[in-house]
Design goal:
It contains 11 helices and 16 strands. The chain is α/β, with parallel strands linked by helices. Bound molecules: ligand RRO.
Amino acid sequence: MTARLGSLTLPNPVLTASGCAAAGRELHQFFDVAQLGAVVTKSIMREPRSGRPTPRMAETPSGMLNSIGLQGPGIESFIANDLAWLVAHDARTVVSIAGSHTDDFAEVARMLAGHPAVAALEVNISCPNVESRGQVFACDAIASSRVIGGVRRAADPAQPVFAKLTPDVTDIVLIARACADAGADGFSLINTLLGMVIDTDTLAPALGGVTGGLSGPAIRPVAVRCVWQVHRALPHLPIIGMGGIRSGLDALQFVLAGAAAVSVGTAVFGDPTAPVRVLDELTAALAERGFASLADAVGIAHLDGPARALRLEPAAAEAAAS
Ligand code: RRO
């Protein structure tokens, strides 16, 4: 179950999703977070930030909207408290970083350089809950390229940079290519989709911030499609796939589409043990299908029948052929 994401190797492919498990402390009451491939922390900015007005969550069919607005303690407090806690608990950490302006991202990346607990950076250029759509950098190829290029130059060369993209664009491959050309080492796909709920009793938007990010099983087919498209266009760059994963078979869809690892997000609100359960279920699902390793399954849905069979153990390949 070793997950190979370019220069980053993790003992298994199941991670938390940024924003759904803070910095891992709350989940640690339910399981040892060192069991995860990595903890992906809530996006952190240069300065502390209080976020958007309440209410900040609304339920939707097979999903939910959030409108948190990048609430967080700022990078200095994060390093002193959250990263220190993760180091003390032997958790591998992918730090999600965010900024209001292009230079903010590079500054945060610089402050994390050389930190032994930071396995990789996830560059969140796709938060939907910002003051203006112009700050959703991942909606524009040039803006994406500037942020990712700045981070890649400022970051520790030993810390791979994953660009987190939004599906709210006409052509996600165009944005992915711009990020790759700017030096992205991989991708996190996908962030939430911009959505809205109106309360029919109050006759007003349900969220204080009016719009929010849609997550949960409702977005899974969109997420699998994005992973498929980006893997097909840029097969050499690793993808962390996420969007409505609740089971090992959900995770398997992402792997078959081209994800080398997956993040479990919204599912933890209903079942805090979901990440370890998904890992167990994915491990069993791969074995049942005749895969000798996780790597053999990555992107296999892109291959034709005979090429797929070559990735399976001989007995499973024979069974599939008959
Ligand atoms: O904090 C948020 O409101 C938030 C972020 Br940073 C993000 O990337 N995605 C999302 O749905 N919410």
